[in-house]
Amino acid sequence: MIDLKPGSFFENVELSEDEKEIIIIDQVQLPNDEVYLHLNQLEDLYQAIKKLQIRGAPAIGIFAGYSMYVLTQQYDNLPFEQFYQKFTEDKEYLNSSRPTAVNLPWALNRIDKVVLENKDKDVKEIVRLIGLEAKEIHREDKEMCLKICEYGLTLLEDGDGVLTICNTGPLATSRGTAIGPLILGKQRGYDFKVFANETRPLLQGARLTTLELQKAGVDVTLICDSMASIVMKNGWINVCFVGCDRIAANGDFANKIGTSTLAILAKHYGIPIYSLGPTSTIDMNCPDGNHIEIELRDPSEIAEKWYQQPMAPKKVKCYNPAFDVTEHSLLTGFVTEKGIVYPPFDVNLKKLFEE
Ligand code: MRU
């Protein structure tokens, strides 16, 4: 399944042939082991998101849609009232797995809408329609990613140095957002020099971005998060491309912890910084970054993980936010499937939904 030769893509989320299970590659075990998980139980689906076996805002949304499809097939013999009660409990439980990426509630709400709009139909028919909606969310994401890749590529020149953080490739989205244009550019003969922040503490940059870019034949250099300033100062970075987990109406956006550091550095060195993501990541109900809930994760991810022995004293206090918010004033633009959005973001993001 994982085949990233230039010109090829792989599926990060798939339905089994009988559509009763979701198949994902366990991203926690990459790059060392390619292990596929077949999931259809609520707790396993919840844990897959929580533990980051599936991760990246758009991929979480796609996975959530399919989760409701495989789950509801297991109780499609219930009368509607009972069916909807169970559906709502499952949906709310999945929605509580991670708070920051808006794509999770966005996808679940789309599925909920399908159920309510068809509540007079037979429950088996409702479940079939849930399946169609989940597939549509997936199809749309592929289409949106490909457009984002095209728009993103217009911002790049052959030979550019690009700094990125976390993982925004085909593992995290259907076809890639922030690193999608780099893979597309390679297919078209461009040579970029990409610097990937390792992305402490879960190392999505070191483990996943370097893997995807290596497989796609893109020149990639791994750096520690604390090295971003020196590579910018050295003149090696022409542009920063980062993802997004929730974009507020004023243009503040949450993305992997460390993104705001890159934006502050980029401003200091006069380097443009773009956030690339589908419009499903824009939350017009969220006025600004202060209203974005930041996920706090287990301290052991900082103090123990990746080390043969814990590398910090037992019970040391840790602060482990998974995301941070970048203020809109630091960003050059958002690259969406509908085009590139420049400031003033409060005006121009709104326009995306008026067309
Ligand atoms: O904690 P993660 O790995 O899910 O965080 C992912 C990111 O921050 C990505 O940049 C974001 O979800 C966009 S994915 C295209």
How is this structure best described in words?
The structure is a single chain. The chain has 355 residues and is α/β, with parallel strands linked by helices. 38% of the residues lie in helices and 15% in strands. It has eleven helices and 14 strands. α2 (57-72) packs antiparallel against α3, α2 packs parallel to α4 (103-117) and α2 (57-72) runs antiparallel to α5 (123-153). The radius of gyration is 20 Å and the shape is globular. The relative contact order is 0.12. The structure holds 5-S-methyl-1-O-phosphono-5-thio-D-ribulose. 5-S-methyl-1-O-phosphono-5-thio-D-ribulose is lined by residues 52, 55-58, 101, 166, 168, 172-173, 177, 204, 243-245, 255-256, 277, 322.
Estimated helix fraction: 25-40%
Order of helices and strands: EEEHHHHHEHEHEHEEEHEEHEEEH
Shape: globular
Class of secondary structure makeup: alpha/beta
Mean pLDDT score: 95
The radius of gyration computed from the alpha-carbon positions, rounded to a whole number of angstroms, is 20 Å
Low-confidence stretches: 4-8
First and last CA, distance: 37 Å
Number of helices: 11
Q: What ions, cofactors and ligands are bound?
A: 5-S-methyl-1-O-phosphono-5-thio-D-ribulose
Largest sheet, strands/sense/barrel: 7 strands, mixed
Strand-residue proportion:
5-15%
Number of E strands: 14
Task: Enumerate the strands of the largest sheet in spatial order, edge to edge or round the barrel.
Answer: 6-5-4-7-10-13-14
Summary of the model, kept short:
By secondary structure, the protein is of the alpha/beta class. It is 38% helix and 15% strand.
